[in-house]
Specification:
The complex is a heterodimer. Chain A has 3 helices and 9 strands. In chain A, strand 5 and strand 6 form a beta hairpin. By secondary structure, chain A is an alpha+beta fold. In chain A, strands 1, 3, 5, 6, 8 and 9 form a 6-stranded mixed beta sheet that branches. Chain B is an all-beta fold. Chain B has a single domain, classed as Immunoglobulins (Immunoglobulin-like), CATH 2.60.40. In chain B, 0% of the residues lie in helices and 52% in strands. Chain B has no helices and 7 strands. In chain B, the strands form 2 sheets. In chain B, strands 4-3-6-7 form a 4-stranded antiparallel beta sheet, with no helix packed on it. In chain B, strands 1-2-5 form a 3-stranded antiparallel beta sheet, with no helix packed on it. At the A-B interface, strand 6 and strand 7 of A face strand 4 and strand 5 of B. Strand 6 of chain A pairs antiparallel with strand 4 of chain B.
Chain lengths: 163, 103
């Protein structure tokens, strides 16, 4: 009897220590502090892709807002003749990048793609996206748990959503 | 059937640059066909690149990625002759995978 109560005491202490460690990580604002969010693990962020506006999609994906940064280099055309295929690339000089996301503000669902960048992978991605009409393309870079963005307007002459 | 995935991985110095092109309709679910009926959404959701048992790149895609998607990235490490495993899964549960040798 006394043995089992000792054991439960130890377990409780371990649990409390664990909780303390999590709280400390939270204060340090490390990327590992948000495992509950889709952006921090390998699960497909279904909810974020369903959001209509870019602000809601960023919130659903990361749970916080991004600040504009000139360290995020967004490479997109001034004018896209075909909205079905718009080449867009992003690169950054920021360190400790864990993810890069692309949003197209006027698409039916703003979030287009979100890339996980594990340690050792170069923080630069090129891809091709569909754009419904002329609007802003937003690139989000998650670096050291903070979000940085770059925005560029792309003029679309033929929309990519088949009218 | 031939693989839907075409990959070119080239090592130079300490980084390996990877380009991938996949055959997939990437239907968004907003487009109507000739009869005016909506073509249901059908798009790749996740694309994974593994090297040496470690995921080096993971793409989460929505319907706004273009038909026959293309992606380019680079990672540190990798040597000529190493295998790179690429796999995707779409919203209907279909999937494909292939391995490519780093050149």
């Amino acid at each position: 009897m006394s043995l089992s109560s000792d054991r439960s005491f130890v377990t409780r202490r371990l649990v409390l220590q664990g909780a303390g460690a999590v709280a400390l990580i939270g204060l340090g604002n490390l990327p590992t502090a948000v495992p509950a969010l889709a952006a921090a693990n390998d699960k497909y962020p279904e909810d974020a892709f369903k959001q209509k506006s870019d602000a809601d999609a960023i919130k659903a994906l990361y749970g916080k807002a991004a600040e504009a940064s000139d360290k995020v280099k967004l490479d997109a055309p001034e004018i896209a003749e075909n909205g079905a295929v718009v080449p867009i690339a992003v690169a950054t000089t920021l360190a400790d990048v864990s993810s890069i996301s692309f949003l197209v503000s006027e698409n039916p669902n703003a979030l287009a793609a979100s890339y996980m960048i594990p340690a050792g992978t170069v923080p630069a991605v090129a891809n091709r996206l569909k754009m419904a009409k002329t609007c802003n393309v937003i690139a989000i870079v998650e670096s050291s748990g903070k979000l940085y963005s770059a925005t560029k307007e792309v003029k679309v002459t033929v929309g990519g959503c088949g009218g | 059937m031939a693989s839907t995935i075409r990959v070119r991985a080239i090592n130079s110095g300490d980084t390996t640059e990877v380009q991938a092109l996949i055959q997939h309709p990437m239907d968004s679910g907003f487009v109507k066909d000739a009869k005016g009926e909506i073509i249901p959404p059908h798009f790749i959701q996740q694309l994974t690149f593994e090297h040496g048992g470690k995921t080096v790149f993971l793409a989460n895609w929505g319907a706004a990625v273009s038909k026959d998607p293309y992606v380019k990235f680079a990672f540190k490490g990798g040597a000529k002759g190493d295998e790179l495993k690429i796999s995707w899964i779409d919203n209907k549960g279909a999937s494909d995978s292939t391995t490519a040798k780093i050149a």
